[in-house]
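Q: For a teaching handout, I want to show students what a protein-ligand complex looks like in token form. Below are the inputs, and the small molecule is protoporphyrin IX containing FE. Please produce the holo structure.
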Amino acid sequence: MPNPTTQAVKIWDLPTRLFHWSLLILIAVGWWSSTENGDMELHFRCGYAVLALLLFRLSWGVMGSSSARFAGFIASPRALLGYLARVKNKDVIHHIGHNPAGGWMVLALIGTVFFIVLAGLFANDDMMLEGPFANDVGKSISDLATSWHEQSFYGLLGLLALHIAAMLVYLFFKQENLLLPMLTGIKHLPQEVSVPTIHLRSSWLALLLFCIASVAVWLLVKMA
Ligand code: HEM
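A: Here is the structure, written as tokens, with protoporphyrin IX containing FE included.
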């Protein structure tokens, strides 16, 4: 039954939510496939799929729904510091999309995943496997890329721990559930919060952008 004291606001479009959960699955499978029992062919495929997802998200961050646009949620350092100074207070500050700290976390996560995938394109395993561009840069640079590819994964794990810890802090200390909107797209806000109009873009546009991103990755790998 709808709660008369809250309003349901659609904040995350389907493409953004699919991006998030596909990224999580692909990173988990990509990690597993690089372990002893894994399959490096699958690891490469996960890497290419993650790259296509990231290219899609970059374009969606410019052309997508207003809540998914980078310009809408990347706060200035001053706004970020102001937010962090207030966030420890018990009062709830309602944000329609990412809050200023969340916006920077999004950039850090996307940037780190990008770095891992780009380094992987130049990496080698000292035996028979190599990324599609490893031969173009020579062994020593390829070795460097390999160590960046591996080390930055630990960086990603650190960021993820922070990402999930922040979500739990919001849930338990600020009674704000960030997870549910990432699943359903809908956030429940008190009636008195005035909500700016969120312009949701068509999922078909997202599909077109994802297809273009996938073709771009396919061409990149083919041309290598
Ligand atoms: C490989 C693992 C993960 C990565 C790379 C990742 C990355 C991201 C990114 C990039 C966003 C921004 C979404 C966008 O605007 O496109 C985001 C948001 C979010 N993620 Fe994750 N995530 C991961 C795992 C998880 C997990 C396991 C959870 C929870 C169980 C989670 C919960 C959330 C929530 C609640 C948001 C929305 C935050 C907000 O309201 O500002 N994420 N994540």
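A: Two things your students might notice: The beta strands are 6-10, 186-190. The radius of gyration is 20 Å.
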